[in-house]
Each structure stands twice: as C-alpha cells, then as structure tokens.
Amino acid sequence: GAVVSQHPSWVICKSGTSVKIECRSLDFQATTMFWYRQFPKQSLMLMATSNEGSKATYEQGVEKDKFLINHASLTLSTLTVTSAHPEDSSFYICSARDQRITYEQYFGPGTRLTVT
Amino acid sequence: GQNIDQPTEMTATEGAIVQINCTYQTSGFNGLFWYQQHAGEAPTFLSYNVLDGLEEKGRFSSFLSRSKGYSYLLLKELQMKDSASYLCAVRDRVGNTDKLIFGTGTRLQVFP
Q1: How far apart are CA A81 and CA A96, in angstroms?
Q2: Residue of A39, A44, A101 for testing the chain B interface, max B β-carbons within 10 Å
Q3: Chain B partners of A1 at a C-beta cutoff of 8 Å?
Q4: Residue (of A37, A114, A36, A108) closest to A76 by Cα position
Q5: Given this model, what pLDDT does residue B62 score?
Q6: Do A93 and B41 touch (CB under 8 A)?
Q7: A35 at the B interface (CB within 8 A)?
Q8: Is the Cβ pair B45, A110 closer than 8 Å?
Q9: What is the pLDDT of residue A41?
Q10: pLDDT band at residue A1, thresholds of 50, 70 and 90?
Q11: What's the CA gap between A69 and B39, in Å, rounded?
Q12: What angle (nearest 5°) sits at the alpha carbon of residue A45, between those of residues A43 and A76?
C-alpha cells in the first residue's frame, strides 16, 4: 500500500527558533500534499495545500510567512515553522494524494512539536 | 460555508453495534470519508462514499445520503481495539481546489 513518512516524529525547540518537518511519499508520486494541524482532543485542521512546483495555497487564518511550505519534488514536501512560539505546539500531520488514485489521501504518522 | 457535525463522544459495549452520525454542509461535495484515529497516531482510512447508499467492508459499513447531507459509520461486533476517534471528512471541490474538510471527530470508548 501507499506509504507516507514524516520526519522527525517529534521535536522540541525553543521559542524563536525555526523547525523543518519533512513529508515523503515512499512508493508513489504525489502531485498534491496537504498539511494539517491537530490540537489535543480536536480534529484535523487543514493548514495548506501544496502542489509540486508551485506555491502552496493557505487556508484562511494561517500565516504563510510563518508556516513556509516547499513542495520541490513529487515525493517531498516540507513545512518550516519559523520563529516558533509555545502556541505553535501541536501535532502536525501531512497527507499525500496519489496522482493515479485521485480520491484518496494517505496520511503520514505525524510530528509532535513542542515549543518551550 | 462549510460545516461538518459529529457527536463528540460515544460509549458502547464489547460485541455491540454502534452508529456514528455525520451531517455536513459544503460548497462542492465530492465524496465523504471516514477515518479511524488512535491517540497520537495518524488517521487511517476506513471508507469512502461518493454515491448514495451503503458501503460494507467487514465489520464496518458506511452510508451516505447526499440529498440530506448525512452519513453514518456503523461498527458491528465491537472490540476493545475499536476504542478510538472516528473522523468524518468531506471532499470539498471548489474551482480548482480539492481538499478534505474534517469534522470534529467522535471519541468512541468500548467497555468490556
């Protein structure tokens, strides 16, 4: 089956620093990847849609200068949280759409970010 | 606007049947997903409905009525391992954008 990996699985950083999270589709090509954020006991909130080779589309209320997304290849998208604050602490999950099966998204295992 | 509603929590007994409802309002409906998510893990795919009717897959079934903006997930022969959050997600297509909008999720607790 389709596998999506994320790295790192968890990270602790200090306020004001930047953190990069990688999302990779391991056995399929993903023209579109999605980034979600999930706070404890809440559902997934879409942050942005990332298309290979073009700028990401951000959801309303998500600061594009703070959450930098790069989708440089068909198997890799990165999310960089810049100048992190404690309120950015969350579970970040990516998903990738297999361009051959356009209705289904495959989710990565998530990255737990804690900002101290 | 977009709105997807599910009950926040449900409880059930091992071996029983439970139905989790989801109602939605979206601009460009293009299918509905159900996912299971255990705490601290990513969602795993359970079912996908794009046409009205019932889709059965083992112990899990999912139903869709597009005219009513309604879906349910039916879990039979409940097991302890079914304790998890169940997320209803609607595929919303508007223009060239195609994205999943998630409901609030339903936390199901199965008791022995």
Answers
A1: 20
A2: A44
A3: none
A4: A108
A5: 97
A6: no
A7: no
A8: no
A9: 82
A10: low
A11: 26
A12: 120
B102 and A91 within 8 Å at the Cβ level: the answer is no
A45 CB within 8 Å of a chain B CB: yes
Reference A23, options A43, A42, A47; nearest CA is A47
8 Å CB contact between A4 and A106: yes
Please provide residue B77's backbone torsions phi and psi, each rounded to the nearest 5 degrees: 45, 55
Min CA distance, A42 vs chain B (Å)? 6
DSSP label of B68: T
Is A110 close to B40, i.e. CB distance below 8 A? yes
Q: What is the CA radius of gyration of chain B?
A: 14
- How far apart (Å, rounded) are the C-alpha atoms in residues B13 and A31? 43
pLDDT the model gives residue A6: 96
Per-residue model confidence as pLDDT tens digits over B30-48: 899 999 999 888 899 999 9
Encode pLDDT of A55-82 as tens digits: 899 999 999 999 999 988 889 999 999 9
